[in-house]
Amino acid sequence: MADFEVIIVGGGLAGLTAAIHLSREGKKVLLLEKKAYPRHKVCGEYLSNEILPYFNFLDIDLETELKPVKITNLLYSTQNAKSTKTSLNLGGIGISRYALDNFLCNKAKKNGAEILIDSVEEINFEKDEFTLKLSSGKEFKTPIVLGAFGKRANLDKSLKREFFKEKSSWLAVKGHYENPDFPEDLVALHNFEGGYCGLSKTETGVVNACYMVSYKSFKKYKNPEEFKEKVLVQNAYLKGFFKNAKPVFKKDLSIAQISFQKKSLINNHILMLGDAAGLIHPLCGNGMAMAIHSAKIASEAVLANFSNTNLDRENLEKQYLQNWNANFRKRLKTGRMLQTILINPIFASTSQNLVKKFPYLLEKIISKTHGQPIV
Q1: 132 FRET partner, CA 20 to 30 A, in 38, 90, 203, 346?
Q2: pTM of the predicted model, to two decimals?
Q3: Which domain holds residue 38?
């Protein structure tokens, strides 16, 4: 007999949002997360306003509860600091994962979802039922598992996912900084040799600085601080920012082995959500919104195909695949192309000149990597 109707593995934005949605509709949900809330995560911390209608549906009121900053403009610069600025049609908010994840966790609990801090060691599927074995020794059974365990996890290896077999050449580093001169309404993206750095304010008033860099560029230096002093500041915008910025963290956070390869959306009947399903390049500024949107797609598929004890697994998986691809496949492809262009100095400079002559091109690029309001 199943212990829960749905078990969600991973408590990031996708997992937490799915827990809120499904528990709101009366499903008995367990969410498993290996680390306690609240905590900081390596993330750009810019959230597109496209998610607001969906959050309203879920009775999630970020404005009243967390008071995020409102972001309406984008500034982009190349390695040689040629820049372009444009307004963001939908706009977005600046909000820390420290506050947001904890807030969503409490909302899920209030809805009736159970949250357990534990690691999943093994997931087995047999006779149309999953058995999950945890590091604590506990075991749970369920007919549905949603995999929301992030960019790269040990479970990816045990599930023999193809992307896990190849090493990725990317890592990300994040820090929070006090810099009162940085505009509250701005998200900035600045290129440097081998990568790019995003800057935007959060609800606390500090600036989140998160950069993505190739191992090839980073491995020449001892640590993030030296990389910052030798490479990041070669971009005049970043030099100006860090010159007047005071670090809040004692040590920058980092994450390695970030893969932008295509990933299987369903593995051994587990529906993959958020970064576990596919990672858009952070320069597109839309990863947080995509994770939340994927939770909606998965939750709706579960609710449409699982009533009482009747589960149409074949149609559940078919519906999820179709809707996920309809919403994200083109965006991920555009993100991969955009990264190839922007980290190449020659391509980046050429594209910058084109955008200067034809400003509408930047708005077009933004629209290709962002979705419409999620209703």
Answers
A1: 38
A2: 0.92
A3: 6-167+258-369
